[in-house]
Amino acid sequence: MNVAISNSSDKPIYQQIFEQISAQILKGELESGYVLPPIRQAAQELRVSIITVKKAWEELEHSGLIHTVTGKGCFVADFTPDQILQLRNDMVQGQMATDASYYKSFGLTIDEVIELLKKVY
Amino acid sequence: MLSLDVKQVSKKYDTFELKEVSFQLEKGYIMGFIGANGAGKTTTIKLILNMIRIDSGEVQILGKNIAEHELELKQIIGCAFGDVEFYSRSKIKTLTDVIKRFYKNWNDDTYYSYLRRFKLDENKKISQLSTGMKVKYNLALALSHGAKLLILDEPTSGLDPVARDNLLEIFQELVSEGEISILFSTHITTDLEKCADFITFIENGRIVKSAEKEEFVASYRLLNGKENQLNEVKDKLISYKKNSFGFTGLIHAEDFDPGLEINAVIPSLEEIMIYFAKKEAMYV
Q1: Which residues of A touch B198 (CB under 8 A)?
Q2: Which pLDDT score is estimated for B222?
């Protein structure tokens, strides 16, 4: 599991942790059944507060990416390929919504955006 | 379980008043206690430790009233006030030998392991220690008697960035088992951005807010707008600064109407402190 935290980012730290881990789960880098480190240990290693990690883990659980077994820890959940696809699309769309509002602020039409996107993709 | 429960504590002096101070610290977490110089941080800490008599209110540590169970509770509290100002011409060894007698659960093995870890030479005199070393010596003493609650007054001020980082790492390690809780006051807010779970902010003898760190900063917005927009929000701002580019001001998140086209971001702890201090200045 890889997590790199940036202090200069505008995103809250728990959000950064959540996004990075969920991306790794959705890309299949973390397989189902993978055990996440205990919250307090992760906080110590990442040098962030305990509640920050707790929040990130809660978000992951809320999105259905991990499940908690009391006394045993947090595990990456089981998914069918359809579910993975669904979750991945949700995440990508979330990012697109943010980006879209940025493009709209310049008055670009969708066709113009697609043209520009083709150039950089 | 609550490690520390401060309930409606008040204390009146001729020129300063601490008014109905309340906050709670859960076991196994770190709380940062912030406020400008003279806001009442040290007074609050002294009241918690029963070093000053409370006018009204109550302080409970691990469920017990400090005024009634002082001797018992002091066995499980470790405190450090930045400096060691007593017996500064004696060696560490001599001073420790005096202090350890007060504690029933003193553990020499733990003590020596911290001395090694902190690179403290017990044959050095207190007066020869740097500020950072004194803090570490204090911590070594606090940790060697099995303290469950550490109350530290400005432990990081006067330390260089490397030593501060070092100390914060130790704090996180201490709470990682979930048994020890730490309350530390500071005005270096960057120390807290990462390691603190809870923030309690005191201003002019009153608690402005005590909450989880992320909830704490998220309850404010820092606005950045054009000068002509200032009037739309002026009444609701905690305080603001005006310049030729527009204005910046702090507002409670619930008072801010996102419909207004004013740039709003979540402030840093430092910005919150600064704008609150500015508010005081505006009405004086």
Answers
A1: 51
A2: 92
Task: Identify the CA nearest to B223 among candidates B242, B249, B253, B256.
Answer: B249
In three-state secondary structure terms, B83 is coil
A16 and A75 assigned to the same domain: yes
Q: From A57, A38, A48, A44, select the one nearest B197 (Cα to Cα).
A: A48
Q: Tell me the per-residue pLDDT of B13-61, one tens digit each, with 9 for 90 and over.
A: 999 999 999 999 999 999 999 998 889 999 999 999 999 999 999 999 9
Both A66 and A22 in one domain: the answer is yes
Residues 6+ apart with CB under 8 A from A66: A25, A36, A57, A60, A74, A75, A76, A77
Q: State whether A107 and A50 are in the same domain.
A: no
User: To probe the interface with B, which of A5, A49, A54 has the most B CB atoms within 10 Å?
Assistant: A49
What is the model's pTM? 0.84
**ipTM value > 0.85:** no
- Interface with A, mutate which of B171, B182, B197, B270 (most A CBs under 10 A): B197
Q: List, for residues B143-196, the tens digit of each pLDDT value.
A: 899 899 999 988 887 778 888 888 888 899 989 888 999 999 988 888 888 789
- The residue of chain B with its CA nearest to that of A41 is B176
Distance from CA of A38 to the nearest CA of B (A): 10
Does A10 contact chain B (CB < 8 Å)? yes
Domain that holds residue A109: 80-121
CATH at residue A47: 1.10.10.10
Are residues A14 and A46 both part of a single domain?
yes
